[in-house]
Automatic annotation (TrEMBL):
UniProt protein name: SecDF P1 head subdomain domain-containing protein
Pfam family, one: SecDF_P1_head
Domain SecDF P1 head subdomain intervals: 40-131
Gene3D superfamilies on file: 3.30.1360.200
Species the sequence originates in: Roseivirga pacifica
C-alpha cells in the first residue's frame, strides 16, 4: 500500500472541509482524519477527528491575561453548564491532543497533561504578536456571542 501526497492549502486538505468552531480530538498519525495545519505555521499539522467535542459557544468569555513570568495568553472561560463536559474531555484526553478550531482555522493545539476541573482553558501562542493575540481574542469573542 502506498500513500499519495496531497496538495493542501493553509488550513485544509484541498480546502474541502469546513469544521464548526470548537474543540476536537487530534493526533499526528491517524491519516483517515482531516488534515489541518496551524494558521500561522503550515509546517505544524494535525489529523483531526471530525466529531465536534465542545462547541465554541460553550465559552462564556475570552480575555488576554499575563502570568507572573510576563507571558501573555488568552484565558478562555467556559459557561457553568459546560464545566463537566470540559472536565470529562480533558480526563479522557490526558496524554493526547486537543485542537481548537475557530473560523475554520486551527488556532491552538494542546497536549493534555491532566484533567482540567475549573472550567478554563488557555491559548498560549508565543509566536503571536500582541496585535495578533488581540485579533484572535476578538475573533473568538465575536463567535461566542
Amino acid at each position: 500500500m502506498s500513500l499519495q501526497a496531497q496538495t493542501m492549502d493553509s488550513t485544509w486538505v484541498k480546502g474541502q472541509k469546513k469544521l464548526e468552531d470548537g474543540y476536537y480530538k487530534a493526533d499526528k498519525i491517524t491519516f483517515s482524519n482531516v488534515l489541518v495545519t496551524d494558521y500561522q505555521d503550515s509546517s505544524n499539522f494535525y489529523f483531526v477527528d471530525e466529531k465536534l467535542e465542545i462547541p465554541l459557544n460553550s465559552l462564556e468569555d475570552a480575555t488576554i491575561t499575563e502570568n507572573n513570568n510576563g507571558n501573555t495568553f488568552i484565558l478562555l472561560k467556559f459557561k457553568s453548564g459546560s464545566h463537566k463536559r470540559w472536565e470529562e474531555l480533558t480526563s479522557n484526553q490526558v496524554g493526547k491532543e486537543l485542537v481548537l478550531i475557530v473560523n475554520n482555522q486551527l488556532v491552538q493545539a494542546s497536549k493534555i497533561n491532566m484533567t482540567v476541573f475549573n472550567g478554563m482553558s488557555a491559548i498560549n501562542r508565543n509566536d503571536l504578536s500582541q496585535e495578533q493575540m488581540q485579533g484572535l481574542m476578538k475573533m473568538i469573542k465575536e463567535r461566542i456571542k
